[in-house]
């Protein structure tokens, strides 16, 4: 068995993207200078050979025999801002969170995570994606994804504003007064007679166009840029921000209206401004099959040679994006606060595919043949439902913070105020409120919905049995964060400052942690999970702790990681969740144990905080967190 290499002390975080956890601006200020230094170092030393060149990332990420995990978005945790629909039928979304997601017809799958805000992207396929990301110094650079890793494109040395392509061997990038073109082997750059190329479009080597910042149109003719229009052509100074076309018939648009089109070898003003004249409300210019399509105020229009025609496809309300292979085979993204839904038009009817909820999920458990996540305002996500649902509850402001479930499908959820809900079938039933104060319940475990334990802040251990509560332990100025057990005669509760309580079937008693590191103390995460009374683990700060022969011993230390969650399906299938203390706030670390070695699982996640995880089968895990995040990780 190979030993774990403690690479965490010096490993840069550039290889895995920047911050993956959203924090307030105030919390981020402390990390701005280190982030800039790391990013500048990576950019300075990177190779300059082409789109798939990989800059230095320090020591390679150690995987220790663990194959890459596949991350799938169970509920859409990020908001798509733009979509690229390929002739192959695949659709790719770009998001403000820096994620490129692939839509497989039913779900959004995290295809690649850039780690910085994504402002434009273009995809030729799953292993050939270009994206423009805004670095911590607010400059925008071109990046390339080759199916496994992101790298900054070193053949494009200028700042990048926009990207488009016609194939994997023909890609065009616009920047400050320059356009760069990739021919399949190398990049070449040429100046345009304008301050910037704000939009670019290509239909192949013989048709490349760019728009200047005041509406000037430039065409690449025999290697030289020729100006085809001036600002006065549009009768108003206008910033063309996008092109959409089919072949050499191209439409040019601002952020809220279509201004003109290129057909028959000339640019022409749009005589009819259409419904978008001077207004902005969900404007989208895109291509659906052979049609150039405009989405505006929940209506769909086609444009042919400057002529508008409304298309009646029965769009639901609040649609933001549409895409598809034809007007008869459409998909749409619907914004229905606080949810976003993916919709499919089938036989003239729109059906919902995936839902997103903007509120945080705090806890997740298995229940029956599925899993259940709970969180803010009594929101639940049941894997057997198509979308999040509001749990029936006593109070409208109930914040569900912990949940546990059983094989019969029943479950118990508790709130930040000691309220308890019992789920039987599809119904939630209120249980007696936990007495004595206003505890924030952190974790629940029990043998049934009529007999379970709950741990909370401030440092309390409670038992619920047959309709009544009893307080078993109180540790002032402490927080108990995790509880787990096996049968009626063994249970463990853990908390901050190395607090461990052990139940032997008769009494709960405090026990000491043997050989724990000093860095594990303080207000850091703690959690516990096991297979049986002889195979039990806990995470406490930076330590992985194991229960052996009546003692809790620190088995392994992760010096630069604050561990806060542990789960598994067996003793050779265990997952740890933590956050890197040496990198930017929110850098997520995921480790997996396969029975022989611990290894780090490459992370390709949205910039959200993960709060809890549960195993749903061998190598299959569900992670939940803020922004309505429900993710599935499959360890190969």
Biggest sheet details: 5 strands, mixed
* Outline: elongated
What structural class do you assign from the helix and strand content? mainly beta
- Spatial strand order of the main sheet: 46-50-49-48-47
Number of distinct helices: 2
| Uncertain parts | 1-67
In angstroms, what separates the terminal alpha carbons? 19 Å
Strand content: over 45%
Q: What is the gyration radius calculated from CA atoms?
A: 27 Å
Into which percent range does the helicity of residues fall? under 10%
What is the β-strand count?
A: 57
- The whole-number mean of residue pLDDT values reads 79
3D structure, described in words:
By secondary structure, the protein is mainly beta. Helix content is 3%, strand content 53%. β35 (411-415) and β36 form a beta hairpin. It is elongated and about 90 Å long. Mean pLDDT is 79; it is low at 1-67.
